[in-house]
């Protein structure tokens, strides 16, 4: 059975959010919802998440799962906000789910940001094992283990669709970076090859789209292409690219990239499943921002 897929693009972080619906029961899963964050004013808002709830209400849907492909480094997750809001409106509890290797990311972030264990332990309701099956209404879904971009990264195979998160982007963008802690270019290559093993007509829904900025090549954001299109036109995979070529190129390019502008805020919220830190000041959550200080300033 193929789902009905509602797509929502969040332009600030160029993130795709998905509502995946069982056409028979109207049960649905929400994948990678975004919590809006204003870096200039340090404020959180819920416009993007509320737009998802508007679709749920309009289509008379029942949210049965809140699915994360990984602990994102470029935007805050709205999973906990959606769970709490739906519960308050009388909906059944919708579990927040992610791959079991999120424990690796949580341990790293707990050390880096001094996060108390009680603030991230059991912050997800369910941790998927590799290739674990679960149901969304009468549809069977599979949680695919796709590490490389991060150790906890996964995707969701539902009908003739795979929601790939940040493992594989659109053909003109290529593939995700793998220079974050626990990322690995060889592992990412193998994860991408696994996606290309699906039938040619399988739709691969991406986690982000970054349309070209110049007017000559500008296009509207795209949520998916087929496996065939990825295999034939993805700029990091086509033309007989080998694993060795990919790993060598990734090692040079990725380490030259600047870090995502919401990296520290996103990780601290996302390893908590979308909850804010317990520490606060005048009612505002305290998020630790790590700043790289030039050595000359430290030595005088």
Automatic annotation (TrEMBL):
Xref: Pfam families: Lactamase_B
Record has Metal-binding as a keyword: yes
**Cross-referenced Gene3D superfamilies:** Ribonuclease Z/Hydroxyacylglutathione hydrolase-like (3.60.15.10)
> GO molecular function terms here?
metal ion binding; sulfur dioxygenase activity
Q: Which GO terms describe its biological process?
A: glutathione metabolic process; hydrogen sulfide metabolic process
UniProt keyword annotation of Metal-binding present: yes
Q: Which SUPFAM superfamilies match?
A: Metallo-hydrolase/oxidoreductase
- In this protein, which residues make up the domain named Metallo-beta-lactamase? 14-208
Keywords (alphabetical) are: Metal-binding
Q: What is this protein called?
A: Metallo-beta-lactamase domain-containing protein
Q: Which organism is it from?
A: Penicillium frequentans
């Amino acid at each position: 059975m193929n789902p009905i897929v509602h797509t929502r693009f969040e332009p600030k972080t160029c993130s795709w959010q998905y509502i995946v619906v069982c056409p028979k029961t109207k049960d649905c899963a929400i994948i990678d919802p975004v919590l809006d964050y204003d870096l200039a004013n340090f404020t959180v808002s819920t416009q993007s998440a509320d737009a998802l709830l508007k679709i749920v209400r309009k289509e008379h849907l029942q949210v049965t799962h809140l699915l994360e492909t990984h602990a994102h480094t470029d935007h805050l997750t709205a999973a906990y906000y959606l769970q709490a809001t739906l519960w308050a409106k009388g909906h059944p509890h919708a579990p927040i789910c992610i791959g079991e290797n999120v424990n690796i990311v949580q341990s790293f972030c707990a050390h880096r940001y001094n996060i108390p264990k009680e603030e991230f332990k059991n912050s997800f309701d369910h941790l998927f094992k590799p290739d674990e099956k679960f149901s969304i209404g009468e549809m069977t879904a599979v949680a695919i283990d796709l590490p490389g971009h991060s150790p906890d990264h996964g995707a969701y195979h539902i009908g003739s669709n795979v929601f790939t998160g940040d493992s594989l982007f659109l053909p003109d963008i290529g593939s995700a970076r793998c220079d974050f802690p626990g990322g690995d270019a060889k592992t990412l290559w193998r994860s991408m090859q696994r996606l290309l093993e699906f039938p040619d007509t399988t739709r691969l829904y991406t986690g982000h789209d970054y349309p070209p900025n110049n007017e000559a090549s500008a296009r509207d954001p795209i949520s998916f292409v087929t496996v065939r299109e990825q295999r034939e036109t993805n700029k990091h995979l086509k033309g007989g690219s080998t694993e060795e070529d990919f790993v060598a190129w990734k090692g040079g390019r990725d380490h030259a990239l600047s870090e995502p502008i919401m990296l520290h805020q996103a990780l601290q919220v996302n390893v908590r499943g979308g909850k804010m830190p317990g520490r606060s000041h005048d009612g505002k959550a305290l998020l630790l921002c790590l700043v790289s200080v030039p050595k000359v300033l430290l030595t005088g």
